[in-house]
Design a protein that fits this description.
Blueprint: E1 4-7, H1 13-20, H2 30-38, E2 42-49, E3 53-61, E4 68-76, H3 85-99, E5 104-110, H4 114-122, E6 126-131, E7 141-147
Parallel strand pairs: 4-5
Antiparallel strand pairs: 1-2, 2-3, 3-4, 5-7, 6-7
The structure holds coenzyme A.
Coenzyme A binds next to strand 4, helix 3 and helix 4.
Length: 154
Amino acid sequence: MKPRLRRARAGDVDGMLDLERHFPGDRMSRASVRRFLRVPSARVWVVDAPPHGLVGALILLMRRNSTTARLYSVVVDPRARGLGLGRRLVQAAERGARAAGCDAVSLEVREDNAAARALYARLGYVERQRLPGYYDDGGNGLRLRKALTSRRAR
Ligand SMILES: CC(C)(COP(=O)(O)OP(=O)(O)OC[C@H]1O[C@@H](n2cnc3c(N)ncnc32)[C@H](O)[C@@H]1OP(=O)(O)O)[C@@H](O)C(=O)NCCC(=O)NCCS
């Protein structure tokens, strides 16, 4: 079955927690996943591949008084990597951010996360700030940003 990208719903909590196991570093609790699925400031997309379940998820956070959305988390099941799903998730988030009136997306990524950095670079994210010791284990982070051009201008 073809993987299908869609907005997440309340019943996706377990599938998202399963995917979280593949995330490097800190894991999200059930309570935070449930919260992200509930609050209006968060937009969540998943890639659903029945009968296997969810093979990808992305959380985008909108901030009050800011036109920059924050790409909080993106993860693809290792068995489904390299197929363009990460790219599709990030592009969906960009469309969602634009539709919500945002003009940019920012995110933090581990400096040593080559796959994620390649994905973001491919999509036009640029390094804005180095974040030494940003992660709990002392790992360095990078803050990246992409300006969203309007549909008409593209
Ligand atoms: C980062 C991640 C989401 C990428 O997902 P994916 O579905 O494999 O990525 P895609 O297949 O859409 O790849 C898109 C582009 O990213 C780049 N890329 C992805 N994985 C790569 C890898 N391992 N090495 C080099 N480049 C890679 C490629 O340039 C690719 O573009 P191309 O197809 O034109 O060559 C996935 O590796 C993952 O879930 N990692 C663990 C969680 C994580 O680190 N999340 C990001 C935290 S900020």
